[in-house]
Structures are given as C-alpha cells and as structure tokens.
Amino acid sequence: xxxxxxxxxxxxxxxxxxxxxxxxxxxxxxxxxxxxxxxxxxxxxxxxxxxxxxxxxxxxxxxxxxxxxxxxxxxxxxxxxxxxxxxxxxxxxxxxxxxxxxxxxxxxxxxxxxxxxxxxxxxxxxxxxxxxxxxxxxxxxxxxxxxxxxxxxxxxxxxxxxxxxxxxxxxxxxxxxxxxxxxxxxxxxxxxxxxxxxxxxxxxxxxxxxxxxxxxxxxxxxxxxxxxxxxxxxxxxxxxxxxxxxxxxxxxxxxxxxxxxxxxxxxxxxxxxxxxxxxxxxxxxxxxxxxxxxxxxxxxxxxxxxxxxxxxxxxxxxxxxxxxxxxxxxxxxxxxxxxxxxxxxxxxxxxxxxxxxxxxxxxxxxxxxxxxxxxxxxxxxxxxxxxxxxxxxxxxxxxxxxxxxxxxxxxxxxxxxxxxxxxxxxxxxxxxxxxxxxxxxxxxxxxxxxxxxxxxxxxxxxxxx
Length: 465
What we know:
Radius of gyration: 30 Å
Mean pLDDT: 89
Shape: elongated
Number of helices: 9
Structural class: alpha+beta
Largest sheet: 6 strands, mixed
C-alpha cells in the first residue's frame, strides 16, 4: 500500500532564542507543495533566500549543523528536522527571521507540539522511500565512530550508543523500533554538554542563548563553591549545585539515558539531509554531527547512483531497426572501416538510439592492444557522433547531400572497457532545439545496463552536394 506525502494544514510559529547567537528568533512552519521537501527561508535578508535542507549544503558541524546556500546560512537545524521526520511530514517551508533556529528547551518536543496544533494535510503524490539495499558502513577510527545502515522490512529503526569515558555518563544506549515511537521516546530529550565544554563556550562567547533551562550539564570534574557561584551569576540564578546523578541541578533528567536519546534525535535530524525518507535500521556508536553528515552524504551518493541507473533504458539489440546498415549508408557518407553504426533502433525529433556490434575482426584490434583488445575510446566517441549525426540529418529532406561536422566534444568520460563480443548501444538526446543546423546533444554508450562512455556533443550540418 502506497503512503501519501503530507504537509501541514496551516502556518504555525514558534519563538525563542538562538543557543549560540543569543538572538530572539521567530520560526514559522508553512505548508509546501508535493516533492518540495524541507527548505528554510531567511525572511530577514534581502530577497528572502532559500536554503535547501541538503547534506551538500552543510558548512559547519562544530556545535550543531549549519546549512548555507544562496549567500545565507541557518544554524542548529537538526532538532527542527528531527521533529519533521518524527511526525512523518514530507514538505514544509520554514521561515526564519534570524540566522539560527530557536533552541527552545533543547529538544524537539516544542516543535512537535506546535505542528500538531495545526494538523496535517495529505497530498496526492506517493511518498518515495529509499529502502537501504545492503549494509552501508561509515567509520572514523580516531574518534571510535562506527555507523551502519542495514536493510529492514517496513520501517525506520534506530539504535544509538554513546560512551565519553565519563564516570557520570558511562556507556548509554537508546533505541526506537519504529519512527512512530519518536514523539514519546525521543523528542523530549534535551541537548547536553560537559561542564568543561560549557566553560570554554562561555569564555569564547559561543552560547549567548544558553540559560541552563535548555541543556543538561554533565559535571565531569571537581567543582568548588566559588565556581558554582560564578556559574549561578552567569546564568542569573540564585545558586547552582551538583545533583546526585552528576549533573548540574538546573534541570531534572527526563530519562535516565537522556544524553543517548538526544544523540539519537540529532542523528535522525542530520540524516533528514539525505533528502528522502529512509527505510532501514541505523546503528551508531559515538555519533556526532560531522560523522552524521558524512554518513548522510554516503547514503545520498548511493541513491543518486541507483536513480541514474534506473533512468537508463535497456534496449533489445534484436528489435526491428528503424534503419539497417544499408539504409544508414544512404544517409551517412562513412564507409567501412569508418562506418561505426550498424543499426538505428529508435529515432524521434529529440533523440536517437544506435547499435554497434563490436567483433574481433574490427580493423582497429590489429594494432590496439592485440594481446588484450580494447575498443579505442576515440572510436567510441566517433560511433556516438555518427549516431548523433543521423539525428541531426533527420531534420533535412535530403540527408545524403549533407555532412555532419562536429564542432565540440566536452565532458567525455570512459567508465569501462569495451571488448570484442560487446554490443555497444548509443543514445543521443538533444539538450536544446536545433538552430541554424547546429545541434547540442548529450550522448551515452551502454553495454547492457552499464554506461561505458558519455559525452556532450555539438554538431553542425553543412551541404556538400
């Protein structure tokens, strides 16, 4: 059963303070059309630039995840994105009047509460999940980071382990078996830091929005009364002490393993930057924003590779051709051994598909690596060009009186060897309308389902008879 994409019914706003900037910010979630995804809009900047929630736009992961695009940035996006993934929302435009999302209470729960007040709107398009096809690994040995995405029938499962060599935190685990558990089990878990980090951040003026109501502070060293008094003054509190659990008594833990749950929350938010909802089991040991984003990029690259493969049509070399070899010679002036197209399988006003059967008795194999024959790349391009030439010559009533001259070949790439016995199929598509007899084409050459060569071609037809 297909699941429909969904957005929200109406705009809804939340207001708060940026954790690192200390600036007041209002953030508004807006409904968005199908296949829109998650986007941020900086409404406080000229032109209101839009920033796509995409792992390729990540520019900083030091104290949260920052995205930059179109000359604008937005920081600490992970808690917002985790809320959207947890609510299984596909499309939303997020307006911000500042450079950072509001930290709220340091978790995702207030975003979820606000969005649930406005409700959800199902859309016509189906949600397109990416099902993890096999184990995808990522590791950073120096940081002891280990991540793996594994196939799983039916849902999005997460397991997270944190271990900071801290006597207070120890080793903690958090897990959800389905994304539907996110709101109850994970969303309210707040960000955390160690006391020594807090002091360094304060010293460098990096957490202007921290008020000790939005973070768990783990006390990982001996603290005297003078230091506690200093912290109390910084955070406008009467007094601060160390709770029995080894954290500052500014807040009470919502879960015994709240830090691990928050790391899981961060990871769900960062993996939203893949750009599509995932189906699989994610296991992570000692994750952080930099590793999460690198893992997201690895998954996105795999998705892109698989999608490009799906767009490649596999042709039957035995199908009835549009033109056979004799008919091709009535159009092209080339003759053996320089005629490198045997059949034309498809021909329209915008694309052509040609076939070249590569056999051992090709004349170029006599001198081109006779002991290990490989079809020269330059002749693959020539065969592609001849195929494209037929597309261009198809625009005139007397093609036999015209020549196709190639003006430019760009971005030629050879991805695999072409060997005797291969059937090489070329497809050339116009990338712009033909003007004054000049055609711009994108060409690919395939052996079976594998693309072995690709190039961008520009050709012009000239009359010679």
